[in-house]
Specification:
The protein is α/β, with parallel strands linked by helices. The chain has eleven helices and nine strands. 40% of the residues are buried.
């Protein structure tokens, strides 16, 4: 039986890799793959040793969106299929955002529809030259899902988000970099090495502080300044109780590089 999502973990580095594995359909999401992804995310989330998560797709694409063939096989059941798909994907997306461990998307080929939403849900995005990013929902007459309308305006602004949705244009790697969707663009053949380098650096960081950063920045646009300042205060105070804070301050005062443990 094909393993729909491959999990590769390195206890030595703290890096976990989740590889969506339907390369024959460019890793298009059907219900079994979505459920496997949800289960894989939950499995990794329960591992306290994980300090960085890498998402990627097997083969020549990241994720080509939802598997449209499953929507059109029986239109009387389309809403049922979509419901089941999102019942699996929504908890996975929320779980990833709630984790302290940063999530890194390694993108080769196309990231479309829900695949683009997975990219937008990630904290860092490394793209190989030739990758393409497209909203794609205009092509099937549907509104975006999987957080696309939540993340995209935050990343690129409302005007650019509207352009991508209404005109259906794709972004190449350089355009995605300029728009703020991608952090790094690397030559063909260097995606794995570049992603591993970034993931290793992230995994050596102050993981619990990274989690606070994720939660604070996600909420920043929703709160008045005074309320957000108090949220920052609470996060900083909580941070002072961690082993990484003690190590960081001690290393700073001792003029040496900190050795964080994620605790």
């Amino acid at each position: 039986m094909t393993e729909l999502v491959k999990i590769e973990r390195s206890p030595q580095t703290g890096i976990a890799r989740l590889i969506l594995n339907r390369p024959e359909v460019l890793n298009a999401l059907d219900v079994p793959l979505a459920e496997a992804f949800r289960d894989a995310v939950e499995e990794v989330a329960q591992d306290d040793g994980v300090r960085a998560i890498v998402l990627s797709g097997e083969g020549r694409a990241f994720v080509a969106g939802g598997d449209v063939a499953t929507f059109g096989s029986d239109f009387s059941r389309s809403s049922e299929v979509v419901d089941a798909l999102l019942d699996a994907l929504h908890p996975a997306l929320v779980r990833l955002r709630a984790l302290d461990a940063p999530v890194i998307a390694a993108v080769r080929g196309v990231a479309a529809g829900a695949g683009l939403s997975l990219v937008l849900n990630s904290d860092l995005v490394i793209a190989e030259e030739g990758a393409r990013f497209v909203v794609a929902y205009d092509k099937v007459g549907s509104a975006p899902d999987c957080g696309g309308t939540w993340f995209l305006p935050r990343k690129v602004g409302r005007a650019k988000a509207a352009e991508l949705m209404f005109l259906g244009e794709s972004l190449d790697t350089r355009q995605a970099l300029a728009a703020g969707i991608v952090n790094r663009v690397v030559p063909v053949g260097e995606l794995e090495a570049a992603t591993n380098d970034i993931a290793t650096r992230v995994a050596r960081g102050a993981t619990r502080a990274f989690g606070q950063f994720k939660r604070l920045t996600d909420a920043a646009l929703e709160r008045p300044l005074a309320e957000h300042l108090e949220a920052e205060r609470a996060a900083f105070l909580a941070g002072t109780q961690t082993a990484d804070f003690r190590e960081g301050v001690t290393a700073f005062l001792g003029k040496r590089k900190p050795d964080f443990t994620g605790r």
